[in-house]
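Have a close read of the entry that follows and walk me through the local backbone shapes. See right below:
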Amino acid sequence: MLRVKTLVPSLCRGVNTAATKTAHHVPTLSQINSSATLPNLQSPSQLAQSSHLETLLPTNEFTQIKPKTKRPLLSNSKYEDSTYQLPQYVQTIGEVVIATLRLDMDRIRAGPIAGSHYYAECKTQSLQFADEELSPSAKFFYEELSLPRTFTQWFQITALHTWILSVRMRAMPFKYGRNYQQKIIDRFFRDMELRLHDEMNVNSSRISDQYLKDYNSQLRGIVCSYDEGFATDDAVLATALWRNLFNAREEVDFVKLEAAVKYVRGQLYILSMMSDREFALGKFRFVPPQEIVERFTEEQIAKMKAVAKEEYEPKDGKKILPSQKSKLSYEN
């Protein structure tokens, strides 16, 4: 398996893009908030559908995803089944071990939260198979934005969502944010390796490794260019989306490009309104492209903080279980 390091400034060196100047940018929540321009009361989906330009896509049957056997979303492990509950005695033993060894749960959670839960969120936004009905989020990308239904396009869309989450992860305390980033990137490439073999019928490990190296190089450029767009303005972000998500298409539909920018900015805004603890516990869900993101009022923000305080502060003398403890703030 190809080991992929967390995308940090040193990995952006040598990438042929002006974004290398801003690739090291570590955002604050206020910067994420202020960068999220939410211009009009149209959802990204509505905006994309308002375009009347016809887009002709190249067809390549080989790159379509037509697996004989589909892989599970994450794995066959019962521990990644959202309906699975640990037996009570196992939970009790676990709480004793955590308390006795004083384990740092903020570090331990990175695996199940970033590497499992958040990766599944990224993967499902554009997951598709030939001749199967698309999910609402996948329809936005493949039908409303007119993107080709290929494995490489799925990689581009999943990489975009991974980057969106990485922006919020970098705003966390460094040792935790970096760990979350590493877990989601590791899972991304492990899943691609398995999908190439099982669903794209790439049975040669040499060819598979070459694909993964190519995708790794692409991901470096993607992160650097999106970072530049995040740190500057919508025009630069639109250019990055055109170059990556739209594959530098010559006759790009600017209305659909604007819809993509609006979608990204909306996700970043919602992330900026979450505390470190809420995000680290897996509370975030991507806003469907059919929904409108509006700025919260001061009253709404105050109410959200009150709800978080009620949830995370010990009350009535009741102690928090060791597995639920966290050093991360719920007030930022």
About this structure: The chain has one domain: 9-324.
